[in-house]
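Morning. Coffee machine broken again, so started the prediction first thing and wrote up yesterday's gels while waiting. Chain of 120 residues, entered below exactly as on the submission form.
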Amino acid sequence: MAKDDAPMRAPWGDVAPRLTEITDAVLFDDVWRRPGLSPRDRSLVTIASLISLYRVNELPFHLKTALKNGVTRDEIVETITHLAFYSGWPTAGTAVGIFRKVLAEIDQTHDNEGATNADA
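Came back before lunch.
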């Protein structure tokens, strides 16, 4: 998975525990760990698919995962730009807005961590 090799986990364990177990075991522990593609490449494929299919609920999680897996911010923007011509301007525009929120959240988290570490 990501550089720290912590496996991804489905976020619905409190509501749908069996769906979570299946998702974790099959998708995150099997499919994402197959040797044919790197986690970075899987992340690029995944975000491209989610953007193209207008899957806005899953996109923030996978954008964060892509960044953890080594996809750069610029590469994500380039992916979105490229997809505008294949999946349409509305999907690209929506993806940019979602990515903006993800980046703001990440930057805010880093700012808070820096303030906490400075106070220690």
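Residues 40 and 88 are 24 Å apart (CA to CA). Going to sketch it on the whiteboard this afternoon.
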